[in-house]
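User: Predict the complex.
Assistant: Input components as received:
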Amino acid sequence: MAKTVMIVDDAPVIRLMLRDIIEYNGFTVVAECDNGVQAVEKYKELKPDLVTMDITMPEKDGIAALKEIIALDKTARVVMVTAVDERESLIRAIRSGAADYIVKPFEEERVLSAVKTALGQA
Amino acid sequence: MIDHKTDRVIRTVADLGMDKAEQVFTKLLKTSVKIEIEKVYMADISDVTASANGLDTKIIGASVDLKGEIPFKFLFYVEERDSMLITDLMLRRPPGTAKEYDKYVYSAVQEAGNILASAMAGVFAADFKMRLAPQPPTVIHSFTGAVFEEYVMSTAASADEMLIIESMFKLTGHDLKCMMYMVPLCGAEKLIEFITSGIY
């Protein structure tokens, strides 16, 4: 059975780019969310195998949502997605339990590598 | 009239920023992008706004607040028709695929602005030891004059001058006229002092 992925990003164009890459490579996208509040709610409901999480988002940012998801489920696998040069945020994310991170703009190979590594398929 | 030292400072900032922007845009659009700086200067906000109010060009852009020791408002925009080309290139589709101003077009420009603002923040952090945290971008679709009224004049209470980078993004087979504005919310003088101390 294909592994399930939830994409969290406030930019529809980035969600579409990630969905194309993820689905083309045999994973199933079960939900898209555009903020951290929705992400936590959807995670509780769907328990996806992996979450891709943008850091800078309105309402609740990606780091806050990551912390809540990890508090709910210590085994959650979350890959952070962020714009260039937010290194301090990335360090905070890794310390908060993120499995990996992708820097925007991203290449398909890098997305796939992060997804597979986080899912233990590398 | 700005002095030679100030002129050198703002040109250094623009050059470093554009080098970084060129790298990220080439990667984002998966096509060779050459950014040429047409003009970079500090200008009085009221002069810029008066001039922009005279223009009725319809544009799509992104406004990003950069929070930090010296906070900025960052504004990036392209002419309406060019936003579709950016969208098609980002989504790896043939140019001409996007036909209407839908959520993907707005989002593509918003994300381009976000990535450029983050690139500029990265330059300030790496070269001038100034931390700037980009906030979620706001997308804009309006006339140039209205954009200045809403996004630039709203900062006029705390800022008097703005750093303007007029640039032309040259893609393989296409020219995109892009405008970037950075308004230091603490006032231009403090910004120049901060940057100068890192250069001299």
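The beta strands of chain B are 33-44, 58-68, 72-79, 132-134, 138-143, 161-171, 174-184.
Let me know if you want any component modeled separately.
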